[in-house]
Amino acid sequence: MERRYDPTSTNHELMFMGVVPDDEDDGEAGRDDLFGETPDAPIDVGDGPKRIDANGEPGGATATASTTKSTGRKRKSTSPVWEDMDEIFETVNGVQVRVAARCHYCKKELSARSSGGTGHLPRHAEKCKLRHGIGRAEHQSMLRFNADRTVINWEYSEDVARIQLCRLIARLDLPLCFGESKAFEEYIKIAHNPRHVNVSRQTTTRDIEKYFKEQYAKLAERLKSVSCVALTSDIWFGNAKKDYLSVVAHFVNSDWELEKRILAMRLIDCSHSGSNIAERISTVLGEYGLTDKVFSITLDNASSNSTAMDTLKPLLSGYVGPLLMHQRCGCHIINLFVKSAFDVLKPYLDDFRTVISFLNSSNQRIAAYKSFLLL
């Protein structure tokens, strides 16, 4: 017997609440009254290809589902990480597939295939925000006061911090592990910048090598426009008990300003003979393209340096020819004068050294000496 739909029935209220009616027809009797008549066939709302069955008729719902899949339409990504990343797609078998992601801040490309996980992307984005001072309130930019009383925005940059750490280590001859020490981290974070990130000694080693190559390339490019240079050279020893030959260039730049640049500090772990000194100096000049731009060399008065000049003069005569000047170091000459004077005063100096050693050998003697001075 046909049943009529009653709008006042309980099923009517249940259907509006999204609950299946409790009678045996599962609400089919009232569906037409709520949503209108059911069409005989699905309504085609797309313009894609349709699947045709064996009788030449459209395949109905199956064709519609296939159409959506065959168009290769990508679903919109809902993860918040894509607010900080750009998706990179490639076409594989006619379908666009996500293969990578590009960070908005560092422009680095990371793996992000559709078939793989993306858990590493938010971690990378968070680190980039910390480095660039983006996001939280404590990561906002700060004000910096210049010497001329102007105020500018200051942003913490991890790259700048790492470069300055390399300069500090090189200038003070600090160990490479200095940047990862707990004491240094506490000092920087408490006294200067709470956003400081420690750097391992392996990273510092790579940073120093990279910084050296960059500065070397800049100096080589700058010296290309220099017409002539004057050189000074000497041998130094470091804390590691190794000897190094320094080569320094003095020249006048395009603004008529005198500049001094260290060209190299070359290890000389062999005899300090004239041939070894000349070989290292000529190698450094060849690397910078200065072999034909030298008009004078200043060395100390050691006999090996005079021997080195006999080898260097024919090699460096391209700019001034036989007029190449070999200057004697004035500071070294003054040092020889002072040593000669100390030879005359040596007996008195020995007496002073004996007295100082006698006092420093006992705390009681030092205390007695101080009490004597107060009398």
Write the layout of secondary structure elements.
Blueprint: H1 10-16, H2 28-35, H3 61-70, E1 85-92, E2 95-103, E3 109-111, H4 120-132, E4 142-145, E5 151-154, H5 158-172, H6 182-191, H7 201-223, E6 229-237, E7 243-252, E8 258-267, H8 274-288, E9 294-299, H9 303-315, E10 325-328, H10 330-360, H11 363-373
Helix pairs in contact: 5-7, 8-9
How would you sum up this structure, described in words?
There is one protein chain. This protein has 5 domains: 1-37, no CATH class; 81-131, no CATH class; 157-212, no CATH class; 227-328, 2-Layer Sandwich (Nucleotidyltransferase, domain 5), CATH 3.30.420; 333-373, no CATH class. The strands form 3 sheets. It has a 5-stranded mixed sheet. It has a 3-stranded antiparallel sheet with strand order 1-2-3, with helices on one face. The chain has a two-stranded antiparallel sheet with strand order 4-5. The longest helix has 31 residues, at 330-360. The chain is of the alpha+beta class. The model is unreliable at 22-30, 38-72 and 136-140 (pLDDT under 50). The chain contains 11 helices and 10 strands. The chain has helices at residues 10-16, 28-35, 61-70, 120-132, 158-172, 182-191, 201-223, 274-288, 303-315, 330-360, 363-373; strands at 85-92, 95-103, 109-111, 142-145, 151-154, 229-237, 243-252, 258-267, 294-299, 325-328.
